[in-house]
């Protein structure tokens, strides 16, 4: 869609790339959602989320509706960018970044998932690294936050590896049951100490034109 430049935003690393989540890419990724390959044990997702829908077709429909709603919300109070993770031309998951009162606080947070067919290869950390480069280098973020259930060893390890510091704890529900969350915080100064020079931003000017960053 040439008329919506945010769909042209992309982040590339030597390993993978983040492509703005167009309908075409979401349709290609829908088979992973329909097959339930975004699930993990223990589940990393808090409520509410479409992934807990047991009917495969309805799960895809709910997932797509959530993407469309989120894509359409671009306000000073809240905006969110959805990216499909691509490896060798194949969509393998998603990596999102969003800001809440970004112009005031400069804080972003993130959400991601990866197909079970592609876990254990370092993609989770690489896609978070790409997102952080977009946030700090491309959008001018001051800090990035993350949270994960205490039993989500993969996400918590990625946060530690990338320099996030513990930032307290909180509660959330997982399929109706209360579970403790670890909260994490990464400052711009810490990110800059470990920033990489092999990550490329493409069409980032669209973010400055269409997102309320200042």
What does this structure look like?
- With 214 residues, the protein is α+β, with helices and mostly antiparallel strands.
- It has a single domain, classed as 3-Layer(aba) Sandwich (Aminopeptidase).
- The protein contains 7 helices and 9 strands, in the order ββααββαβαβαββαβα.
- The chain has a 9-stranded mixed β-sheet with strand order 7-8-6-5-4-3-2-1-9, with helices on both faces.
- α1 (23-34) runs antiparallel to α2 (56-71).
- The model has no long low-confidence stretch (mean pLDDT 96).
- This is RimJ/RimL family protein N-acetyltransferase.
- GO terms for molecular function: protein N-terminal-serine acetyltransferase activity; protein-N-terminal-alanine acetyltransferase activity.
Question: What are its keywords?
Answer:
GNAT_dom, 214 residues, Aminopeptidase, Ribosomal_N-acetyltransferase, RimJ/RimL family protein N-acetyltransferase, 9 strands, protein-N-terminal-alanine acetyltransferase activity, alpha+beta, 7 helices, Acyl_CoA_acyltransferase, 9-stranded mixed β-sheet
């Amino acid at each position: 869609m040439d008329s919506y430049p945010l769909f042209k935003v992309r982040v590339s690393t030597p390993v993978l790339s983040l492509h703005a989540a167009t309908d075409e890419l979401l349709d290609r990724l829908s088979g992973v959602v329909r097959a339930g390959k975004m699930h993990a044990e223990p589940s990393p997702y808090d409520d509410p989320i479409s992934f807990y829908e047991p009917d495969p077709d309805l799960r895809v429909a709910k997932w797509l509706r959530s993407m469309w709603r989120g894509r359409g919300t671009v306000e000073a109070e809240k905006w969110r960018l959805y990216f499909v993770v691509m490896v060798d031309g194949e969509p393998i998951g998603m990596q999102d970044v969003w800001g809440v009162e970004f112009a005031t606080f400069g804080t972003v947070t993130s959400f991601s998932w990866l197909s079970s067919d592609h876990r254990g290869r370092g993609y989770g950390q690489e896609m978070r690294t790409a997102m952080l480069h977009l946030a700090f280098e491309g959008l001018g973020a001051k800090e990035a936050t993350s949270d994960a259930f205490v039993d989500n060893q993969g996400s918590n390890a990625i946060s530690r590896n990338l320099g996030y510091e513990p930032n307290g704890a909180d509660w959330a529900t997982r399929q109706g049951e209360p579970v403790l969350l670890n909260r994490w915080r990464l400052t711009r100064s810490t990110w800059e100490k470990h920033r990489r020079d092999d990550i490329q931003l493409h069409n980032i000017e669209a973010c400055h034109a269409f997102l309320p960053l200042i």
